[in-house]
């Protein structure tokens, strides 16, 4: 009988310590979600849809730098206008569009040109300009940025940017873009994967 009472007491103690509302367990820290960063955006930018949609005027960085070797992310053109997508450092001026005017950004512009340091680095084929509803995919391997249109490689590499870079998007003239940092519309090219926070890489 003594044994039963001791077991009951242990069970009660264990239940009250570790059960609901108890302090017996330490919750796992949730990994942050990669999304547009409202702390790094232009003053006239509006971010909605849980950090996934950009509208207004200006640019915005994502909240995760591209630390891993090979990253992939996508943008969907919800409404056309003036826009650009690519990579940038935190030194980029997000109030000055279009980006690509200095060494702090490397972007595909809505007209199909790829700009870095105010120089056209490459250009999409004339018959492959992104339209409303299209998905622009971007791969980056710390040397080269490559572009995909609706899952198809555009063979339009560009390079030149240095330092720690982040995904960047800018809009103007009624453009609306959605960012896709996971659950992609198209399968990431071989060897490339979604952006990982530094603590997820190791």
Short description:
The chain is mainly β and 202 residues long.
Order of helices and strands: HEEEEEEEEEEEEEEH
Q: Biggest sheet, in brief? A: 14 strands, antiparallel
Radius of gyration: 23 Å
Distance from N terminus to C terminus (CA atoms, Å) equals: 52 Å
Strand content: 35-45%
Q: Number of helical segments? A: 2
Oligomer: single chain
Helical amount: 10-25%
Shape: globular
Helical/strand content category: mainly beta
What ranges have pLDDT less than 50 throughout 5 or more consecutive residues?
6-22
Mean pLDDT reading: 89
The number of strands is 14
Question: Would you kindly provide a written description of the structure presented here, covering whatever features stand out?
Answer:
The protein is mainly beta. Helix content is 10%, strand content 39%. The chain has 2 helices and 14 strands. Strands 1, 2, 3, 4, 5, 6, 7, 8, 9, 10, 11, 12, 13 and 14 form a 14-stranded antiparallel β-sheet that branches. The chain is globular, with a radius of gyration of 23 Å. The termini are far apart. It holds the Pfam family SPRY. This is SPRY domain-containing protein 7.
Task: Write the topology of this structure.
Blueprint: H1 2-18, E1 36-41, E2 44-48, E3 53-62, E4 71-79, E5 82-88, E6 105-109, E7 113-116, E8 119-123, E9 135-140, E10 144-149, E11 152-153, E12 158-159, E13 166-172, E14 176-180, H2 198-201
Antiparallel strand pairs: 1-3, 2-3, 3-13, 3-14, 4-9, 4-14, 5-6, 5-13, 6-7, 7-8, 9-10, 10-11, 10-12
Organism: Menidia menidia (Atlantic silverside)
Domain B30.2/SPRY: 1-190
Protein name: SPRY domain-containing protein 7
